[in-house]
Amino acid sequence: xxxxxxxxxxxxxxxxxxxxxxxxKPIYKQPEHSISERVSDLLERMTLEEKVAQMRMFHAxxxxxxxxxxxxxxxxxxxxxxxxxxxxxxxxGEHLSPHRAAILNNQLQKYIIENGRLGIPGFFVTExxxxxxAAGCTRFGRPINMASTFNPALVxxxxxxxxREARWRGLHLTHSPEAxxxxxxxxxxxxxxxxxxxxxxxxxxxxxITGLQGDYKGLKSSHIGAVAKHFAGYxxxxxxxxxxxxxxSPRTLVDEIFPPFKxxxxxxxxxGIMASHGDINGVASHANPWLLTEVLREQWGFEGxxxxxANDIGRLHYFMKVAxxxxxxxxxxxxxxxxxxxxxxxxxxxxxxxxxxxxELMKYIDRSAARVLRTKFILGLFDDPYIDIEQxxxxxxxxxxxxxxxxxxxxxxxxxxxxGVLPLSPAKTKKIGxxxxxxxxxxxxxxxxxxxxxxxxxxxKGFELTDGNGAVPQLAPEEAQxxxxxxxxxxxxxxxxxxxxxxxDEFTAKEGFFxxxxxxxxxxxPVGLQDELIASLKKLGKPLIxxxxxxxxxxxxxFAKKADxxxxxxxxxxxGDYAIAEVLxxxxxxxxxxxxxxxxxxxxxxxxYSQKEINYKKGYLFAENKPLYPFGHGLSYTTFDYSxxxxxxxxxxxxxxxxxxVKVTNTGSLPGxxxxxxxxxxxxxxxxxxxxxxxxxxxxxxxxxxxxxxxFEILPExxxxxxxxxxxxxxxxxxxxxxGSSSASFQAINFELQ
Length: 754
Prior knowledge:
It is built from 21 helices and 29 strands. It is an alpha/beta fold. The strands form seven sheets. Strands 11-8-7-6-5-4-1-12 form an eight-stranded parallel beta sheet. The longest helix is centred in the first third of the chain and has 21 residues, at about 5-25.
């Protein structure tokens, strides 16, 4: 072959290969490649500024809007922020209908992709305290209501619906659920979490995250990623006040505070973790490499991303005062393992300039940017970034989701006490007074929907608890409250029974934001003149039923003394009053259980049921040394009998297991649901041990006269705790096993660990 032809042929082949390489899709745009390959390829193509942009998130309220023609409008500030791309945006379209939010988010995503050099999508983030925190979505009950159901399968269904509704409106992540343990009712955010118990919270967290994420398989298209928070110890703030210090023993931290977060990572595979506002014994969580890297990643194997709480990296300098400059604060957060800076302009925004002087920090930026990109690939945003608009209207707030909200309400309502007045009979009780400051404009309608025209309802709200100021609310003037009490008393003279809606509203227990807002309380009694209202109603001599609505545990001594029955409802769904009516009239048999201990006074705090046994030695002068209602308590309209507990073996070996079995019988005349609870008590430990610890529960339904055997498998790891050397061990010797209807009502039997 002519040498010139050979050279020409080779040149043609080379140029052909170059041209093919230039026109081929980059690896990061090819779905057939692994996520790690796609992340590595994309990271190599990015500039420092583009990487840092992926490590930042801003709130849509600074200028992301949809005009009257359904066209995207961005402020100059937002346009500037998006020049290099963005990690994420919080709450885009939160005040729009689901349909218009989806339109907005599709256009916003299109803008981000088309105006970025590499076409990197953004993720859009919400929160989920009563369902999706956005207009037009199904309003479910609070997380504390979910815990009250003691029904993990039902809770998973609820959060599955939340995950779907969020994705359908164009959202991808939620800064929820809270894995915090809440034991101080002064803390305004109590109802955002799942209660005081480590085991119950862990089970709820697993259900919530797997529901939100569609068992992880739904992340690419139908569900959203969960971001468990606040890691760690956030709700243990001194005095129950937000942003206060957190003093907590290392043993309590490992044994009681960490497990729900560990379950979120290992068992539920949460996509993200949010760091805590607070410190742990003086070490700020956002600057704690032991917490965010050693424990979270090296010990537990977490591969997701860590986001700061709002502005908290910058606060390492000006609030926590552990960094001399904003630049040092950014470095501390970066090295500790915070991957995304939420909102701040005085933290990761400074990284490009910092790295120009400290190039050794580049490895940390690559690490964090890679984690954010990995999240976006898992969510399928590079391959399918847009929402099917036609699907939204029929899917968000569907009838099936509204029915699910009612189901959760029915199982979360707790019957605290009943002197035989409940259930009410529509045939016998024809006039019922609906009264009190927690009465809503929809209460009467929902009661009427539940029972048609069988009953006449007399309404009298009387007064508001507060002025409704969302920042620093003020109590309603006493004069106005007294006028309201008189109005109520005058109106219900002809009622045959009275249902009083009392407790606390959204303003008496809320988040105390960093600036110009309060939400915590120094007392836990009902605010205002509610005790006086109940005392006045009692004097009428009519059956008095209290419907307790609240977002924090309250010491309801007067309520308990005066009321013939009390329904504890926490903060139910948008159709919650319908479920309350069903319970009051016996259409639904209540089955909720307390996820917290109800103290008699603030002076008893801390008073969770699982505190150390030595704490029960002494009480206080002139006071009863027990809770008003114990953890796990909840009555029914039927009765349940428990047989003595039977063990499959009297000895548990360190590598074995055994079973505890009890027969539960419905001895009443109505079908009912009972939550059978398992507690373990270490009789002799190497360190001072808790009074008892919940280690299992099963919710069963029984017809009148029906019996069921309930069995719990007892494993050695259920006995583990941190010993003298701070290493986990299973203890030794004798343990007491308790099975019953609450932490205060149980059958007990001992076994040996060998």
